[in-house]
Amino acid sequence: MVRKQDLTRINDNLWEVPKSYREDMRVPARIYANERMLEAALADQAVDQLVNTTTLPGVVGYALAMPDIHQGYGFPIGGVAATALPDGMISPGGVGYDINCGVRLLVSDIDAPDLEPYLNDLATALFKNCPSGVGQGGEVKVKDYDQLLHEGAQWALKKGYARPEDIERTEGKGRFEKADAGYVSAKARKRGADQVGTLGAGNHFIEVDLIEHIYDERAAHAMGLVQGRVAVQIHTGSRGFGHQVADDYIRTFQKAVQKFGVRLPDRQLVCAPLNSDEGRQYLGAMFAAANYAFANRQLLVYHVRRSFEATLAGRLRSWDLRQVYDIAHNIAKIETHEIGGERVKVLVHRKGATRAFGPGFEELPAEYRHVGQPVLVPGSMGTASYVLVGTSESMAQSFGSTCHGAGRTMSRNQAKKTVRGAQLREELEAGGIAVRAGSMAGLAEEAPVAYKDVDSVVQVVHEAGLARKVARLVPLAVMKG
Hints:
Blueprint: E1 8-11, E2 14-17, E3 29-32, H1 35-42, H2 46-53, E4 59-70, E5 77-84, E6 89-90, E7 102-111, H3 112-115, H4 119-129, H5 145-151, H6 153-158, H7 164-168, H8 186-192, E8 205-214, H9 217-223, E9 229-236, H10 239-259, E10 272-273, H11 277-312, E11 322-328, E12 330-339, E13 342-351, E14 354-355, E15 374-377, E16 385-390, H12 392-397, E17 401-402, H13 412-418, H14 421-430, E18 434-437, H15 440-445, H16 454-464, E19 467-480
Parallel strand pairs: 3-4, 18-19
Antiparallel strand pairs: 1-2, 2-3, 4-5, 5-13, 6-10, 7-9, 7-11, 8-9, 8-19, 12-13, 14-17, 15-16, 16-19
């Protein structure tokens, strides 16, 4: 097990496990964290998992961990690793079970005090119109399933559930073109058939927020963020569909590692060369699940907007919600990065990590290119969330990546043993936060005490130059499964 004395401190917020630590390491492992966060990460298997990712054939540069690192399946959550094309490995454990779990941010012209008299009515409408909970189905019945899997949020635009500007302000315009529904199992299709437009459970949520503080006026202006106004966050992914895709291909890859003679320190790291049949098939199915997630969040936007209109029409002058951005934090993508002074095509795995590309990135909407890519970092329930912006430094240091949230310090089972959901709800509501939840056990799992301090996590990436603070949001109402 990795100990603190095994690491080299590079600066206040960066630590390295050198390649010499273990004979099978192909590259060093680097962790962005302050001293207290590092000690917390060393308390479970997360840093050992990070070291294990350095053994993947084709891995380049460094295996990286963000300050929200904690133990996951194979890769740690908060992990980033890039493998060289064409024969570098792709690993489902480097993406996670909730493929394209991500965050979407909407903003309004509503001043928070004006919303206060109607906040409880709005929370009730959102909870009613945005189905949540384990296995919960949605009201939109999809007949052209393959089209949704191939087109993602663009499918929702054709169906009238999106605006053109929503698509423009979504990562990759809400669609992975290399998606291939032909590589998706019948079981995955069945699990996802009625879940489009649903929130799910676990750490997924819809939150009505106050934009409490602006740090970067120029970037905030580009994104339409105004201090004192109301915003909405949606955090969810590909639901049972993505989970089944991951499960299917983890089983497939257990055979693939034997076929390709890959030796791994942890069977949860199962992988296959990207240019193999197994690798290409998983990539196509993973992108189909990612498109499902884009469509899912887009339908939730539709439900959120109609909830605002139904609650606030005739009461407030404006209730419209404009999209700021939508970004994944569980995905593997083919990108070009500079490694050893050369521009190289690599497959970047981000598992619980967010892309953070800097100014000038051509894929960004024109209004964001001069400031960089928006980065959305939700905190734990009842605490703050952040809007950041990507930097040129992140491109040089971390394959254009940064943190994705606060990061757990306590398992869900531990949280349920420690926290009473009903009491937590009372505490949140006493603090002025309207809460709607499907179960008190689910609420307890996501208690703030189960997470790191998001302010500290964000401060680390800000100081490290991986992303720059733009705005701090605090919750007014929370909806959970």
